[in-house]
Every structure is written in C-alpha cells, then in structure tokens.
Amino acid sequence: MALDSRRRPEPADFGFDPNPLREKYRRERAKRIRADGNDQYREVTGDFVRYLDDPYVEPGYTREPLSDDIEVAIIGGGFGGLLAGARLREAGVDDLRIIESGGDFGGTWYWNRYPGAQCDIESYVYLPLLEEMNYVPKEKYSHGPEILAHSQAIARRYDLYTNACFQTLVTGLHWDPDAARWIVSTNRGDRIKARFVCMSNGPLSLAKLPGIPGVESFEGHSFHTSRWDYAYTGGDTNGNLTGLRGKRVGIIGTGATAVQCVPHVGEMAEHLFVFQRTPSSIDERGNRPTDPEWVKTLEPGWQQRRMDNFNILVTGGFQEEDLVNDGWTDIIQKLSSMVDRSGEGDTPEQIEAKLELADFQKMEQIRDRVDSFVDDPVTAEALKPYFRQFCKRPCFHDQYLSTFGRPNVTLVDTQGRGVERVSEGGIVVDGQEYEVDCLIYATGFEVGTDYTRRAGYEIIGREGLALSSKWADGMSTFHGFLSRGFPNCFFMGGTQTGLTPNFTHMLNEQSQHIAYIIERGRKSGATTIETSEEAEAEWVRTINESANRRQDFLLECTPGYYNNEGKPGEGRGWFGGVYADGADAFFQLLRDWRAKGDLQGLELR
Ligand code: NDP
Predict the structure, then answer these.
(1) Higher pLDDT, 580 or 371
(2) pTM for this structure?
(3) 173 lines ligand 1 (CB under 6 A)
(4) Ligand 1: does its nearest atom lie under 6 Å from the Cβ of 562?
(5) Quick check: CB of 120 below 6 Å from ligand 1?
(6) 37 and which of 23, 82, 276, 565 could share a cystine (Cβ 3.0–4.6 Å)?
(7) What residues contact residue 547 under an 8 Å CB cut-off, 6+ apart?
(8) Three-state SS string across 42-104, please?
C-alpha cells in the first residue's frame, strides 16, 4: 500500500502481524538448531578426495622442484592474489611469484564452473580493475566464463604468468629467522625462499560434505558442485546437460550454488529431486546486456565511484543516488528507510524495532514471490524462507522457483533436519528412499573451521610458533593483515576485516594496503615488518566489541555459515571477526592510517 511520506510507517500499514511471524521464525530456527554446529560436516578426505581432482588439467603434470629466493610469494591465484600481484607490480616489485593449486588463474571462478554459474554482485563493481583493463563487462551480472577470462586477462596485463606455479599446493610455511625469509614448501617438492608472503587462500575454497551415514556406500555417480563433472552430465556452464537425459538426479543443498544449477539439471534430467534443509531467499535477478550508450557516458574514475556508492549503500550509509540499483541496495535501503539516523528521534530499541519491521516487510515480499512462481501450495510453502534477510546469503534468480513447477522436479523438504542418510542406491529422508543415478552435493564450503585447516597447511613463525595454536581461540591480527610472531606474512580475505558483499572491493582495498606496507618496508631497508603486541591487542578488542554488537541478531538467526552454524560466539566464523562499523568505515580507517604515514602499530627491524 502507498504510505504517507510525512509519517513513520506502523505495522498495520504492511498487512501483517509481526508477533506470529516472529514466533514462526523461532519455530523454524528451532527445527534447524543442532548441537554439533560445524562438526555436522565431514572433510573431503579418503575416497572422496577424488571430488577435489582438477577436471580442467591433463593428468601427469610434473616439473623440477624450485629452491630459489624471491621477494614476494603470493599464495592463491584468485582475485585476491591477482590484485595483490597487480598492486605490487605497480609498486615496482618485479620479483614475485603466485602459487596456485589450480591449472590457471581464476580462483573461485576457475573451480566453480557448474551450469549457470554467475556472479550475484553487479559486474561493473565486481570485476576488478575494469578501467585499468579498459574493459566493460557484457552484462549487468556476468556469467562465470567472462569472469574467468577477466582474471586471466589481469594476469597477462600485470605480467603475473611469469614465474607463476600452477597445479602446486602449498604444504607448509616456515619462518627462517637467520635468513629472514619464509620457506614455502609445496607438494611439488619446492622449498621457495620468500622475503614476504601474501596469503589469499579464498574464503570458500574447501568443499564440505554432510557428515551423514552412508555417504561412502552410494554406488551411483556423485560429485561436488565445485568440480562439476561435465564428462558425466554433458553440456557446459551454459547448460544443455544432455548426459542427464534418462537419469534420476539428486541435489543436496539449496544455497546460492544450487539455486543457479537446479534449473539446468531440471531441464534435462528424467527426474530431479532437490533435497532442502532451509529454503533460500530468492529475489528477482533482472539481468540485462550492457548498454553501449551508457558505456559512452562513463568518465574516468567511474568504477571506483560506483564501487564506493554500492558499498556505502549496502552498509546502511546514505548516497544521493543509487548507481547499482539492484536487489542488494534495495534490501538495505528498505531496511534503512524507516530509521531516523539524525540521532534525535529514535532510541536504539526503536531503531531495532523498525529494522525488524522493514525486514519482515522485505521477507513477506520474498515469500509472496514464491506464490507467483509455484502453483502447488505445499511446495510453495516449503520454499518460503522464514528468517531475517541477512541471516543467510540472499539469492537472486528468475528461473529457480519456476523449476519446481516442472513435472519432473520434486522438492524433498526435510523440514530443517537435512537428509537422513545416503544408501547404495539413493537418498533417504524420513525413512523413504529416493533412488537416483547421480548425486550432486551442493553443500558448500568450510567457513567456520580453523584458518590453517582451510588453507591446507600450517604456518610456523618466530620461535616455532604455529598459527593454529596462536589462533586456537580465534584470529588475532592488526587490521586483519599481520599477526605478531609471523613477520612479513600478510593475510587477505575475511580475517578481522571490514566485510562487504562485494568481496573483490574488499580484496582491492586490502591489496593496496599490503602493497603500501611492503613498499614502505623495502624503501626503509628493513628486513622484517611485524605488528606490535599492543596494536594487535587493540585491534582484537575492537573486533570483539564489534562482534558483541551483532551477537543478538546472529543468535536469533537460523543456522548457517553467517552465524557459525548457530554458534556465533565461538569466534571463527566470518561474522565473529568483522569490523562492525562496516566496510566503508574500515577502508577509510586504512586510508587514514596510510595518510598519517608513520606506520603506527608496526615494528620495522
Ligand atoms: P551454502 O553453504 O550456501 O549451501 C549449502 C547448502 O547445503 C545449504 O542449503 C545447506 O542447508 C545444505 N545442506 C548442508 N548439509 C545438508 C544436509 N545434511 N542435508 C540437506 N542439506 C544440507 O553453499 P553454496 O555453494 O550454495 O554457496 C556458498 C557461497 O558461495 C554462497 O553463500 C555465496 O557467498 C557464494 N556463491 C555466490 C554465488 C553468486 O554470486 N551467485 C553463487 C554461488 C555461491 P542449510 O541452509 O540448512 O545449512
């Protein structure tokens, strides 16, 4: 209904009653909450390591081990590593090497080539270095192949293929105090000496499987979405999965990955069973080709302005204009629009009440959207998410919901419990076996587990200090980049940082900061750069206070990786270690720190 703009909206304006809705959210959450948290998942080990094989390289690659001495080793060839490489090149570092487990650059977009893979963040703000590369993406939301090609173009433009080591897994990092070098060991027998190490291992790189009985016993074909098996399914990332004709397929999981691949599988499989534990929130996608006339209007600096505009809006800030104007900015603006931020009107409790109301309103719209695509009332009800918008990652898709209207597609709603077990021939839920020829795990990636476990190697710093011991009770860094005892070792990604849905923006800011510190260190002639104990302790305090501010919201949320599977207080999940004033404030804090120029909090020796 139209609202009178001169007065604040009241619950009655929206046509729903918050009390029963709040109760419904609690009931739905209670169905999903479980004591084992992250331990409910199993690592991809044993027989399942085949799920991690690289389908994009020829087997049998070998090379001589390396033992050279370089300036900077960058671990990870995704956007983080590429941006670090680009910024270091700009800072005049010639002697660097990117070490990457895949057969090429691309990171997430190298591995995740499942049908329909596409980025949910607008391409003009997501694909980094567009102006430097003189490139404008083809669509508002890029598909995987374009993003992968852009990654590789960045590597060419910044000469990052030189000295790169592909198909190489780091197995350990060890600080040699006498040489003041990191020794990087790999599965290729390398012992590379590096003065600086920059780690960009990726936030969602270690696939996980449900720890349910019988996973080993399945006799049909199976794989994880992060290594889509086109040899079996036929087709490619555009779909056309002709190999699935006549096949019964089961997909476990309904997160952002499943939302994109389910329509393609549903189109070709004889029958598709989608096993759901928690429905995702599915908003409109509305993709469109890039308008060449709009491209002509772009003026220098346009991408940074657009990235900043998006970032400020999605972190609840104010901008005269919404340049991206999509589902992300719409959600946050709806949430913010009712709140008086002047500091005069609302008490914190009133602000929270209004935010909750706006959230209900947005989620009612998402639930109504399900009804407009799905006729069967039981299926439609099962597809409706009953949780607050940012308890789980919002999804955007225009074909996912309607796929459940197909006669060959069945939603198997497990009512929050998850699949019971896997049998030799299929999947069992509530004692009923669903026979399938092919089982696809769209069950995501480890997030809340130990950093070194996800990295896949231990980091041994000064005096034999292991990072896993130092961080046993949670991360400890200065600004997210450096941890005392581990000189010259920089972390990128979600380590006590300012988080934004536009990950590449965060990586871009981080890469500039790291390049600045390394450049200053090199110019000063220092051998080591390390954070002071006080500066690190102060940052950890800041982060912990931030975490406390979000705790109430996260505790009420349905479990997922955003709230460390229902245990937000345990510190290892992303949102346990996030700068609560938001990414924009964090980036400004970094800029101010650099502008001061005194490297406060760092010890250069
Ligand atoms: P997610 O972790 O988001 O989803 C995993 C899914 O598996 C969930 O639906 C989960 O249910 C389900 N699941 C886990 N265990 C069981 C079980 N025992 N029984 C039934 N279901 C189970 O992984 P995704 O790969 O989908 O996405 C990971 C992240 O990658 C996204 O959140 C996003 O950040 C990013 N991404 C971005 C994309 C984009 O930009 N378009 C596309 C794809 C991914 P439950 O919710 O109940 O835990």
Answers:
(1) 371
(2) 0.95
(3) no
(4) no
(5) yes
(6) 565
(7) 568, 569, 571, 575, 576, 577, 578, 580
(8) EECCHHHHHHHCCCCCCCCCCCCCCCCEEEEEEECCCHHHHHHHHHHHHCCCCCEEEECCCCC
Query: What pLDDT was estimated at residue 41?
Result: 92
258 CB near ligand 1 (under 6 Å) = yes
- Is 290 in contact with 403 (CB distance < 8 Å)? no
Nearest of 120, 183, 127, 490 to residue 328 by alpha carbon: 120
pLDDT at 354: 83
Residue 120 CA to ligand 1 center (angstroms) comes to 14
What is the Å distance from ligand 1's center to 543 Cα?
26
Rounded distance between C-alpha atoms, residue 220 and residue 423, angstroms: 10
Q: Quote the distance between the C-alpha of residue 582 and its chain's center.
A: 16
Q: Is the model's pLDDT at 295 over the cut of 90?
A: yes
Answer yes or no: is the C-beta of 560 below 6 A from any ligand 1 atom: yes
Q: How far apart are CA 83 and CA 97, in angstroms?
A: 13
Ligand 1 atom having least distance to the Cα of 278: 47
What residue owns the CA closest to ligand 1's atom 20?
Answer: 418
**pLDDT-based confidence at 344, cuts 50/70/90?**
low
Tokens 């009133």 identify what position? 350
Q: Tell me which residue of 384, 442, 398 sits closest to 51, measured CA to CA.
A: 442
Q: Is 205 in the pocket of ligand 1 (CB under 6 A)?
A: no
Task: Count CA atoms within 13 Å of residue 16 on its CB side.
Answer: 18
Burial of 356 from C-beta contacts in 10 A (0-12 / 13-18 / 19+): middle
CA 438 centroid distance within chain:
27
Closest CA to 48 of 223, 231, 213: 223
Domains of the chain: 69-206+448-599 (3.50.50.60), 208-285+358-441 (3.50.50.60)
| Cα distance between residue 483 and residue 474, in whole Å | 12
Question: What are the tens digits of pLDDT across the range 187-212?
Answer: 999 999 999 999 999 988 899 999 99
pLDDT one-digit tens code per residue, 389-398:
889 999 999 9
Which stretches does DSSP call E strand in 321-464? 395-396, 409-413, 421-422, 426-429, 432-435, 438-441, 458-460
> For ligand 1, atom 3, which residue shows the shortest CA distance?
255
Ligand 1 binding pocket includes 168 (Cβ within 6 Å): no
What tens digit of pLDDT does each residue of 540-560 get? 999 988 877 778 888 899 999
Taking residues 208-220, what's their average pLDDT? 94
Decide: helix, strand or coil at residue 380.
helix
Ligand 1, atom 10: nearest CA belongs to which residue?
253
Q: Using a pLDDT cut of 90, give the percent of the chain over it.
A: 80
CB-ligand 1 contact for 207 (6 Å cutoff): no
Region 42-55 average pLDDT: 90
